[in-house]
Design goal:
Blueprint (H helix, E strand, L loop, with lengths): L7 H14 L9 H18 L2 H13 L7 H6 L5 H8 L1 H9 L5 E7 L5 E4 L12 H4 L7 E2 L4 E2 L6 E11 L2 E11 L2
Antiparallel strand pairs: 1-2, 1-6, 3-5, 4-5, 5-6
Helix pairs in contact: 1-2, 5-6
Length: 183
């Protein structure tokens, strides 16, 4: 079912309500962790709608992936190399890095419509995560929360993975995802 909205505010309100009422979210975490997960359900929708994030994803979608970049090549790039640092120092990257200062999360990443990296608080393990549930589920147009606690692939901190679609009007154009720290 696709619902069309004429105003971005209506779309944001719909997504917030979907977050709260969606049966796709795990509801079996211990109460303190569940409260934290619920908090980030709302924050992800808010962050995904930020004009800087939306603009960065739109620009990335128009440019495409870095020429020749693959996940294998990405693994060879050091955390301090300019190509990696650029994702956390761009306008969107700086904003994401600021949001990630929240100690309840250990990673925050923005991806384009094909799963390619747009902005990140830290160099993620993968340049493209289009085959991962955190990306696939949010690209369906609704926020998503993993049903299990697991080490974050990038930080190795026990986390609950969560994601939300980045929208341009009623069209999904990318994904924002987070590792919610469980300890």
């Amino acid at each position: 079912m696709q619902i069309q909205f004429k105003q971005p505010a209506a779309s944001a309100i719909f997504l917030a309500l979907a977050l709260i009422t969606s049966s796709a979210f795990a509801e079996s975490y211990p109460a303190p962790l569940q409260a934290k997960v619920n908090k980030y359900k709302l924050k992800l929708v808010e962050w995904a709608a930020n004009p800087t994030v939306v603009a960065a994803v739109k620009e990335a979608n128009s440019k495409g992936a870095l020429p020749g970049m693959t996940n294998s090549k990405w693994l060879e790039i050091g955390d301090k190399e300019p190509v990696a640092v650029a994702f956390s120092t761009s306008k969107a990257g700086s904003l994401v890095k600021k949001w990630e200062e929240d100690k309840d999360i250990n990673k925050l990443v923005v991806r384009d419509e094909k799963g390619n990296l747009v902005a990140a608080s830290t160099k993620p393990l993968l340049y493209n995560n289009a085959v991962r549930p955190v990306y696939i589920n949010a690209m369906k147009g609704q926020p998503w929360i993993a049903s299990a606690i697991a080490p974050d692939p990038t930080t190795q901190i026990k986390s609950v993975q969560a994601s939300a679609p980045v929208m341009d009007g009623n069209k999904v154009i990318g994904v924002i995802h987070v590792g919610i720290t469980t300890e």
